[in-house]
């Protein structure tokens, strides 16, 4: 029955195959080859993809890459992470993804070879990530790409694979540009970029294979490098991404700033977090818990007092900038109303946060 189904699917033209046929075909191959040795399983997958189905193996056809990914994701669904990593090395003899990554490494500047960058992103996302159901397998395959690379290049690869796009190219300058109003919610494309980048960090926790290389400190170092790719990000974009990445990574960033006496950077990040939280209670609770955890690590009272002073200065600086705009003689009534609302929001955020920090410090002293 299985052989007949496979033969039937192979003889149907691609435009007539029903939705889900590639997943079903991969699932069937996975069942039929489950008792075979690993080398034979991989050999059969390569044979059906590149010989019987005649799919393009040079990464030039997006549709074929999607088909390979949907087939591969189901055929290897019950494989171990070790087997998944080995399958990547064998399939790469056709897809040549690692060679493309090596070419990208040799590029002095990003954005120069846009076609190469798009080819790397499409191949990895369509074949080895988006169609893979298990987070452990996603983390394993991502770790295979990042393995033994310098950390600055690991961060550049993360941006290349998951960062924002514009006009079918990687938008390398997206997070270094000024945005006029962070009180407005991000558009769909920007939210997708935050979501994709956060997935890159989250899946590394799900893979046993990747956990050996990625602990809290190494992920924090990777994040720090990412926030400088290719140039330093604006703090508001950093804050948006940290909310998507989750409380653990956000807390680790604040703890690192607090323990290393980077109190000015700590305060600027908190101010940006409050700004992009847009008065959402759930986000504000995340900020409070992260601040509380970082204060627990600061056993020296002088450190806490320094943080509070820098927080007051950070909010005061932003408020001063808004007031300067309001004092302009050329401001329109609509803009005046907008900035008054922004000033009101900033005052509310500052009052609530400073109140919490002062209360927290008094409780600790007692």
From TrEMBL:
Q: Which residues form the FBXO47 ARM repeats region domain?
A: 109-364
- Highest taxon of the source? Eukaryota
Q: Where is the signal peptide?
A: none
* InterPro entries, per the entry: ARM_FBXO47, FBXO47
Which PANTHER family does the record match to this protein?
F-BOX ONLY PROTEIN 47 (PTHR34098:SF1)
The protein's name is FBXO47 ARM repeats region domain-containing protein
Instruction: Tell me which species this is from.
Output: Rotaria magnacalcarata
Could you read off the lineage of the organism from its UniProt record? Eukaryota, Metazoa, Spiralia, Gnathifera, Rotifera
């Amino acid at each position: 029955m299985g052989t007949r189904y496979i033969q039937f699917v192979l003889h149907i033209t691609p435009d007539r195959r029903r939705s889900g046929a590639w997943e079903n075909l991969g699932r069937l191959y996975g069942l039929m080859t489950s008792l075979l040795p690993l080398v034979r399983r991989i050999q059969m997958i390569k044979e059906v993809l590149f010989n019987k189905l005649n799919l393009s193996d040079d990464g030039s056809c997006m549709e074929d890459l999607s088909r390979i990914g949907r087939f591969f994701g189901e055929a290897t669904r019950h494989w171990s992470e070790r087997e998944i990593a080995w399958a990547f090395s064998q399939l790469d003899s056709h897809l040549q993804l690692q060679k493309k990554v090596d070419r990208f490494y040799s590029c002095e500047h990003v954005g120069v070879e846009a076609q190469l960058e798009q080819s790397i992103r499409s191949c990895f996302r369509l074949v080895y990530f988006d169609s893979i159901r298990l987070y452990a397998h996603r983390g394993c395959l991502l770790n295979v790409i990042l393995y033994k690379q310098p950390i600055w290049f690991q961060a550049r690869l993360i941006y290349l694979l998951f960062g924002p796009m514009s006009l079918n190219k990687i938008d390398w300058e997206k997070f270094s540009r000024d945005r006029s109003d962070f009180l407005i919610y991000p558009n769909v494309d920007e939210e997708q970029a935050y979501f994709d980048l956060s997935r890159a960090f989250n899946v590394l926790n799900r893979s046993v294979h990747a956990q050996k290389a990625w602990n809290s400190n190494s992920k924090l170092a990777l994040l720090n490098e990412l926030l400088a790719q290719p140039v330093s990000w604006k703090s508001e974009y950093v804050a948006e991404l940290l909310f998507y990445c989750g409380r653990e990574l956000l807390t680790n960033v604040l703890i690192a700033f607090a323990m290393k006496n980077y109190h000015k950077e700590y305060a600027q990040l908190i101010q940006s977090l409050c700004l992009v939280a847009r008065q959402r209670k759930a986000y504000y609770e995340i900020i409070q818990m992260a601040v509380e955890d970082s204060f627990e690590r600061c056993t020296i009272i002088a450190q806490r007092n320094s943080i509070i002073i820098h927080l007051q200065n950070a909010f005061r600086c932003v408020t001063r900038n808004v007031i300067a705009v309001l004092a302009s003689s050329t401001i329109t009534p609509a803009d005046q109303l907008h900035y008054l609302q922004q000033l009101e929001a900033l005052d509310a955020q500052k009052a609530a946060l400073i109140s919490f920090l002062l209360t927290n410090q008094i409780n600790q002293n007692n």
